[in-house]
Structure formats: structure tokens, C-alpha cells
Amino acid sequence: MYFQLDIVTPDRTAYSDAVTALSVPTPNGAIGVLPKHVGLFTVLGDGEIKISTGSKELFLAIGGGFMQVTREKVSILVARAVHADELNEKAIKDAEAAARAIVTSQVKGEELAAAQAILRRSVLEMKVMRRHRTPHISPLGSH
Questions:
Q1: What is the spatial distance between Cα 42 and Cα 40, in angstroms, rounded to a whole number?
Q2: pLDDT tens-digit series, residues 118-136
Q3: Which residue in 6, 61, 78, 139 has the most C-beta neighbors within 10 A?
Q4: Total-model pTM
Q5: How far is 78 from 115, CA to CA, in rounded Å?
Q6: Domain 3-84 class, CATH top level
Q7: Distance of CA 13 to CAs 5, 6, 82, 97, Å?
Q8: Is 107 exposed, middle or buried, given 0-12, 13-18 or 19+ CB atoms closer than 10 A?
């Protein structure tokens, strides 16, 4: 049994397909969704979404947002959603190092809050990437 899942950010549709199960982060812990789930509207926190399609599992790192669940469909609107395979380890480490430097430089106000948000996002994205990235294997003979 399947239900439609749509994950949308301000920039793109990050995911749209039929799925068998879903797990999302909320401020009070993870929520699981299965087909024919009772109607629900909830806030989502930064974290990891786990999507099950029956034959495989996909993982996305998300920024905060909202989720609406009906018996046939789940709509997720988030600030950002990045597939584990889209994450770039060097870019994450560079952003984390820059954010740590700002946090330790004793800045205040909006600059400190922005650096702390980047630091949280970097830690989350590194965790998702390391736990769920599928290795890219080049076909024999290609370089």
C-alpha cells in the first residue's frame, strides 16, 4: 500500500513519488507515517527524513518546516531538503569551520545566530551523509 509524498522547498520539489512509509523530525521527536494515516498538521524541525518505497530507503537532511497528512497524501514544506547523495563533504566541512570561527570570535546578535544555524546544519548534514550515502562506483574502464 502506498501514499503520495511531496517535499517542496522554496527553490524546488525535492521529492515527489508514491511511498510506503515516512519518518520525519518534529520538535518533540520523530513521527512515522504509513498509508491511510489519520489527518495531521505539524511543525517539523531540522533533522533527517527517512523515506521507504518498499524496495529502498532514501534519506534527506531538512531545515524546519511543516507537514500536512491526509489519508491519501503527505505534503511537506521545508526551508531546505538535501538528499544524502547530494551532500558535499568538503563544502560541509568548510562551512562548519567558518561557522566555528565566527562563534568563537565572540560576535553577538544576528551574526552569532546565523553562525550557530550554519554549525547545526553542517553537523546534521555530515551525520546524514556519513550514515546514508551510497558509494559512487565507476563502471570499469571509465575515468
A1: 7
A2: 767 777 777 777 766 554 4
A3: 61
A4: 0.72
A5: 20
A6: mainly beta
A7: 11, 7, 11, 30
A8: middle
